[in-house]
Amino acid sequence: MDQALKLRSYAQVEDAVAGTGTRVIAVSSGKGGVGKTNSVVNLAIAFSRMGKKVLLLDADLGLGNLDVLLGLAPRYNISHLLSGEKTIDEVLVEGPEGIMILPASSGVHELTNLGAEERISLASHLEALGEGFDIMIIDTGAGISSNVLFFNMSAQEIVVVVTPEPTSITDAYALMKVMFQRHGERRFRLLVNSVKTRKEGVEVYRKISLAAERFLNISVEYLGSVLLDENVGRSVIRQKAVMELYPLTKASQCYQEIAREICELPVQSGLKGGMQFFWRQFLNRTI
Ligand SMILES: Nc1ncnc2c1ncn2[C@@H]1O[C@H](COP(=O)(O)OP(=O)(O)OP(=O)(O)O)[C@@H](O)[C@H]1O
Ligand SMILES: [Mg+2]
Is the CB of 60 within 6 Å of ligand 1? Predict the structure, then answer.
């Protein structure tokens, strides 16, 4: 795309979203299968019950499954948006409790590495949503691909999901290390999933934060833990969120506590105008 046109697009998007107060949280992990998507969905429900308008962005672009987890069968997804076939309103679907979801495609290889023009396109489509949301949560998918990195770097807050498994711990550390070494990111929040006891969650946090402080000189904040709960697996099979099917089960209580904790903590970037900040980062970063 011609440089001037590109810059104009940046400016238009920035102008259009100026002044919005949407809090943008990316949820990432390094290792796959540790509970990111379940965390995103259940935290979204918890936020919604607290009266917040929530938008979920499935940024696991080639292998999205947020919609599957919720038993939704969206007709369109982000690939239709990027190709210009559909508008944002046509692609967005409503999930449980008023949560809105932008579904990712599944099995579309080209989307695993968004180029600059696709980023601009995605940003300008989402920009049309304006100030309609209090919180946007991004499910980045696993790994350290360029998509994962730039969605993380664009958000105001990065929540890293980890389990007590050593492989999950080393991958979470690797993700933080890459984001620090390549992009100077110094602040992360940790959610320890599938713990047998809360004490185990704190121990995992200590391990990671000690290593991060000692070797990378970065700070990791503890958001809390989610207990291992067989009702999570049951809910996945039934394609419903555990917060919907078993609102009182131990995992649901943990999600609720973590959502409360997130609301009480200050927005990590320290900058105002969430969406504006998000798009500026999103469009200008070259990863
Ligand atoms: N707290 C929990 N207790 C018990 N099982 C859990 C818990 N959290 C997640 N699981 C199990 O882990 C599986 C994977 O969860 P999920 O799909 O959320 O992971 P993910 O990190 O999004 O995976 P991917 O990297 O493939 O996107 C779920 O299907 C569920 O069975
Ligand atoms: Mg997932």
Answer: yes
Structure tokens at 195: 């713990």
Q: Which domains does the chain possess? A: 3-284 (3.40.50.300)
DSSP string, 229-284: -HHHHHHHHTTS-HHHH-TTSHHHHHHHHHHHHHHHSPPTT--S-HHHHHHHHHHH
The pocket of ion ligand 2, defined by CB under 5 A, consists of 36-37
272-287 pLDDT, tens digit per residue, is 345 555 666 666 665 4
CB of residue 141 inside a 6 A radius of ligand 1:
yes
Q: What is the pLDDT of residue 163?
A: 98
Residue 154 CA from chain centroid, whole number: 11
What is the pTM (predicted TM-score) of this model? 0.89
In order of 4, 85, 86, 152, 192, the CA distances from 179 in angstroms are: 30, 34, 33, 8, 19
Tell which atom from ligand 1 comes closest to the C-alpha of 31: 25
**The tokens of 271 are what?**
């900058």
Distance 33 CA to ligand 1 centre (A): 5
The CB of 48 under 6 Å from ligand 1? The reply is no
Tell me: pLDDT of 165 over 70. yes
